[in-house]
Amino acid sequence: MKTVPLHQVHIRLGAKMVPFAGFEMPVRYSSDLDEHHTVRNNVGVFDVSHMGEFSVKGPKALDLIQKVSSNDASALFDGKVQYSYLPNATGGVVDDLLVYRIKEEDYLLVVNASNIEKDWNWIQSQNTEGAAMENLSDALCLLAVQGPNAAATLQKLTSVNLPSMEYYTFQIGEMAGIDDVVISATGYTGAGGFEIYVKNEDAEKMWHAIFEAGAEFGIKPVGLGARDTLRLEKGFCLYGNDIDDNTSPLEAGLGWVTKFSKDFINSEELKKQKEAGLTKKLVGFEMIDRGIPRGHYELCDAEGIKLGEVTSGTQSPTLQKGIGMGYVPAAFSKPDTEIFVKVRDKLLKARTVKLPFVKN
Question: What integer pLDDT is reported at residue 215 of this predicted model?
Fold first, then answer.
């Protein structure tokens, strides 16, 4: 089991540590509910240093990224971030990721912790033109400072004008007396905020500086438990739950980052699938009957015939009702369609909704 650079800090803070994606990670410090509301309404800090980072450089860097990813990375400019996914050769998804353009011929790919080795091997296997790749995953610490007071907290630590930064852009600058910090206006909570990349040796200094700066806002550390409820309220896919090697990215609603204006791995087959029409779709649903949908619970029609299953589900702290996502036949995917969740042999009524569950 690997540990993140701030492992001892989390232990001192009393975090409950659990195995996650090969790492021992903090799942909560106080309660999932308290930490969820802290991020939605104020500011919280996640240590997500388990994520993977790959440097891709050189004259063939863009060609490689265009080949292995679904989105059009040629549209990126210096300081721009792009959400994308890595399609496999059989119609599924190797992983979803972020692509950062640092400058021409210099990119950073940020991948999921559970897929670091798989993604590295996959991209390397496609690197026939010799782009220069380096796995930086073990050298970088990633802190996600999220919530309405994130900018006010971090602005005390840097001269970079944080409120002026647009969503999905980044700057490299000084923060908390540390040089070359990647300050990224991104996050997995939908609550606004920034993701801060620093070298491992600067991680503890950055952590303490952020908490000192956020003290007036009641800043708190936040674990993976609240991270999951926050992302689900926004309808963000979680790799291994909502998308995986066997799920179609188009059925998962990732058509918006699937750019058929270029050729990429399996693009022809995905184009045929789009033209033929999707037979099933990933939908969001809210419970009408009282109950909490959990992963792998059956989704059924009124007669109890199985339509699919829950891929992600929880009790929404913001809406105070059960919410979830799952794949259903296209005929059941229109918003306000009645479906049922099978909970201990009982059919509980739900309705499909347009994502996200929680609007800004």
Answer: 98
Q: Which residue has the tokens 């908390």?
A: 176
Taking residue 329's Cβ as centre, other Cβ atoms within 10 Å add up to 13
- Spatial separation of the C-alpha atoms in residues 291 and 287, rounded to whole Å: 7
CA dist list (Å): 166 to 161, 191, 345? 11, 14, 48
Beta strands across the sheet bearing 16-20: 2-3, 23-28, 16-20
Structure tokens belonging to residue 281: 């779709």
303-319 pLDDT, tens digit per residue, is 999 999 999 999 999 99
Cα separation, 271 vs 288, in Å, equals 37
Tens-digit pLDDT profile for residues 169-185: 999 999 999 999 999 99
Torsions phi, psi of 302, nearest 5? -60, -25
Residue among 39, 96, 48 nearest 226 (CA): 39
Q: Taking residues 255-260, what's their average pLDDT? A: 98
Q: What are the pLDDT digits (tens) for 66-79?
A: 999 999 999 999 99
Exposed/middle/buried for 78, CB within 10 Å: 0-12, 13-18, 19+? middle
In the chain, at which residue ranges do the beta strands (DSSP E only) sit? Answer: 2-3, 16-20, 23-28, 44-47, 52-57, 80-87, 93-103, 106-111, 132-135, 140-146, 170-175, 178-184, 193-199, 220-221, 280-287, 298-300, 306-316, 321-329, 338-343, 346-353
Mean pLDDT of the chain: 98
* Close Cβ partners of 240 (under 8 Å, ≥ 6 residues apart): 112, 114
Cα gap 55→39, rounded to integer Å: 30
Sign of CA dihedral 311, 270, 64, 102: negative
By DSSP bridging, strand 298-300 and strand 306-316 are antiparallel
Q: What is the pTM of this model?
A: 0.97
Residue 121 has a pLDDT of 98
Say whether 164 sits in a helix, a strand or coil. Answer: helix
Residue 360 banded pLDDT, cuts 50, 70, 90? confident
- Average of pLDDT values for 155-180? 98
CA distance 245 to 252: 12
What does DSSP assign to residue 169? B
